[in-house]
């Protein structure tokens, strides 16, 4: 498929399951994949599979093969071809360049350690530094305005940097309020999006190109996804996706953020929680219907 985004009017409901091949699928992924498949089936829609492997240092072809085997075992049929994000960095870069041209994006040079040191120094004197919905400190806004000569000098001499969205300028460039529609297990109806809660999000890194936010938003539009069905852990990230959709003139899907499957200790399942990996459960003799029962479908 060529990387050209078409705006369509009425379109067939289109769903996607979009795992990252940086670990084994677990019960939480099974719920997501099964819900997507079920909703596609009952609406007469399509089901796409997208491998979100932009982090080429952590994603492997072994994990990719394991994902395909798990989905096959669960009886989930998706359309071909499968989209691999690592094959489309040029497409994401074009969108980034449009944002750079509009001066909505700036190169940022502080390392994680430098941000941490600045936050700690501030908090010793002046109280809590603002944090994003995942608990990470926001990038210092005073870094937005490097003098052009200094910025170019650092771009030429610094190996590691990231392009960040200037949240203030981005919000000034779109009509507000920004909203999305959600039909999931959390808040539903028309949701007020608050992308500013994330501060100046990273859209591109010199070492691991396009960010999740940029790639997911562009691909959902490119692939004509009309319904994004994914876990509630990504609920707040949707605010950033909606902002990028408006800035880049992309279509707006309906969102369905589903409940999470938690580990026995109440924590979120992670790719390293081996005992809930689908492959481990399969080896213990569980069947696909057992998995459906375990995830409550
Ligand atoms: N690739 C993301 C993950 O594995 C999911 C992205 C999405 O569904 O929007 O957590």
Automatic annotation (TrEMBL):
SUPFAM superfamilies: Nucleotidylyl transferase (SSF52374). Residues 16-288 form the Glutamyl/glutaminyl-tRNA synthetase class Ib catalytic domain. One of its GO terms (cellular component) is cytosol. It comes from the Bacteria. InterPro entries: aa-tRNA-synth_I_CS, Glu/Gln-tRNA-synth, Glu/Gln-tRNA-synth_Ib_cat-dom, GluQ/Sye, Rossmann-like_a/b/a_fold. One of its GO terms (molecular function) is ATP binding. The keyword Cytoplasm does not apply. Its EC number is 6.1.1.-. Pfam families: tRNA-synt_1c (PF00749). It is an enzyme of class 6 (ligase). Keywords: Aminoacyl-tRNA synthetase, ATP-binding, Ligase, Metal-binding, Nucleotide-binding, Protein biosynthesis, Zinc. The keyword Glycosyltransferase does not apply. Signal peptide: none annotated. GO terms for biological process: glutamyl-tRNA aminoacylation. PANTHER family: GLUTAMATE--TRNA LIGASE, GLUTAMYL-Q TRNA(ASP) SYNTHETASE. Belongs to the class-I aminoacyl-tRNA synthetase family. NCBIfam families: PRK05710.1-4. This is tRNA glutamyl-Q(34) synthetase GluQRS. It comes from Peteryoungia ipomoeae. The lineage of its organism: Bacteria, Pseudomonadati, Pseudomonadota, Alphaproteobacteria, Hyphomicrobiales.
């Amino acid at each position: 498929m060529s990387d050209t985004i078409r705006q369509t009017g009425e379109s067939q409901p289109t769903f996607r399951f979009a795992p990252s091949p940086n670990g084994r699928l677990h019960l939480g992924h099974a719920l997501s994949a099964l819900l997507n498949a079920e909703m596609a089936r009952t609406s007469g829609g399509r089901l796409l599979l997208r491998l979100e492997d932009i982090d080429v240092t952590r994603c492997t072809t072994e994990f990719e093969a394991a994902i395909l085997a798990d989905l096959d075992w669960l009886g989930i049929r998706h359309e071909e071809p499968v989209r691999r994000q690592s094959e489309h960095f040029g497409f994401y870069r074009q969108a980034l360049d449009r944002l750079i041209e509009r001066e909505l994006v700036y190169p940022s040079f502080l390392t994680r350690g430098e941000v941490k040191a600045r936050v700690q120094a501030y908090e010793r004197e002046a109280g809590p530094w603002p944090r994003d919905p995942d608990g990470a400190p926001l990038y210092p806004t005073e870094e937005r305005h490097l003098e052009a000569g200094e910025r170019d000098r650092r771009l030429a001499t610094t190996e590691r940097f990231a392009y960040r969205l200037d949240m203030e300028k981005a919000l000034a460039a779109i009509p507000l309020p920004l909203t999305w529609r959600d039909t999931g297990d959390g808040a539903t109806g028309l949701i007020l999006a608050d992308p500013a809660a994330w501060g100046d999000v990273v859209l591109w890194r010199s070492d691991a190109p396009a960010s999740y936010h940029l790639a997911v938003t562009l691909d959902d539009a490119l692939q004509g996804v009309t319904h994004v069905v994914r876990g509630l852990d990504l609920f707040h990230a949707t605010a950033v996706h909606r902002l990028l959709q408006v800035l880049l003139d992309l279509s707006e899907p309906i969102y369905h953020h589903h409940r999470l499957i938690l580990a026995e200790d109440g924590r979120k399942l992670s790719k390293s929680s081996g005992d809930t990996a689908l492959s481990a459960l399969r080896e213990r003799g569980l069947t696909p219907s057992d998995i459906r029962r375990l995830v409550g479908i």
